[in-house]
Amino acid sequence: MKFGIIGAGATGLAAAYDLSNRGHEVKIFESSDFIGGHASTFEVAGTELEKGYHHWFTNDDQILSLIKEIGLHEIIEWFPSSVGTYQDGQIYNFLTALDLMRFRPLSLLNRVRMGLSSLKIRYIKDWQRLESISAKEWLIQNTNQEIYDSFWEPMLRGKFGEKNHDKISMAWIWGKMTTRFASRKNPFAKEVLGYPKGSFSNLFQKLAESCEGNATEIFLSTRINKIRGLDSGHISMSIGQKYSEEVFDAVIASTPSHIFNMITEGLAEEYRTKLVNINYMAAVLIILVMDRPLSDVYWLNIADRSIPFIGLIEHTNLVGSEMYGGNRIVYLSNYLEETDPMYKMDAEELFNTYLPHLEKINPNFDRKWVKEYHHYKIPNAQPVVDTNYSQNIPAHETGIRNLYLANTSQVYPQDRGTNYSVAMGRKMAALALENLKIK
Questions:
Q1: Of 201, 215, 218, 298, which cross-links 317 as Cys (Cβ 3.0–4.6 Å)?
Q2: Which among 48, 5, 1 has a CA at the least distance from the CA of 29?
Q3: At residue 180, does pLDDT exceed 80?
Q4: Whole-angstrom distance between the N-terminal and C-terminal Cα of the chain?
């Protein structure tokens, strides 16, 4: 059988790996000039580094299993994490229950209330009953307005913007928190996170090589212009600048929903409505290469909305600086709509916008600490997960026989990440084979 796959990120490569291992012909088409998708890399001091920060949790079973299958299990290293929250001009550790009890922006009673609400979330098994209620409503009901305004509202506003922050489903908060809870032995245990030696590029290069060893072809800088289903059940695609037509037994597309809608003929109106109703936030990163640390925390949530970024992820506070020639790596993270003026800024403009706020994080900060900086935008990075989201997710089976959609908008209630992208890619490969009645 002949399979077409659109996208050479974690989903597309995982699907291609399984299909090519079964002896099928696979062609992958990637519009960018690199593989890896949202976890693609660039070079710092001779070592690859992700354009957007990435790590694995101990319970990321799907991707850890795949890594073992392809013989790369020895590249994974595990590190104790550190998490903080910046609020009221100070960094507070925020990883364990004891850290919460030391969180002075809240009264002692409110710290206890917040801790009890976290425990309540931890033991909720039926996330569906959270789906129809907004995070704002549930959190205020189960803590109070002061806790919400002080801690949760700045985080949600930073992640989803002014227009969307109060519409986000509580099921999304549940998915984020239970992922972290599951990676710890108990509420008092330290979090441990995984990162591959030499970056995520090792995984994607190995996956690509495994696929190509099974006669898979990968075409970079190649756009799909049109997809249409044929009466025979085959899928025809118009490919590349020459608009050459090629026919496949099945196609798996990992493109964002609105792009899939634009390039696909013959979709039912109800399915199209679901595609166009998925809204996304873009991830915008400034990556600092520094000669010294900015903080002693790996993951710093910014609860002060006067600071124009939502997160400060100091990568070398997790993995160490040795592999980057002793340089320190700091991601300044933001989620923006593409109409936002900061999204339209170039690297220098955005860096200069952020620069004065770094002194708030570290009063000793000096511009001379920054040896270089990099700027990356990742469009369609974060779906806006509003209430009753599951009712609006487009199905993997598109209504066109043997055409499948598998993108980040369909990872729910968990938050998107390489683990769930791999799981989705392998699931789509299995579904495509099952529907073609291939054992």
A1: 298
A2: 5
A3: no
A4: 12
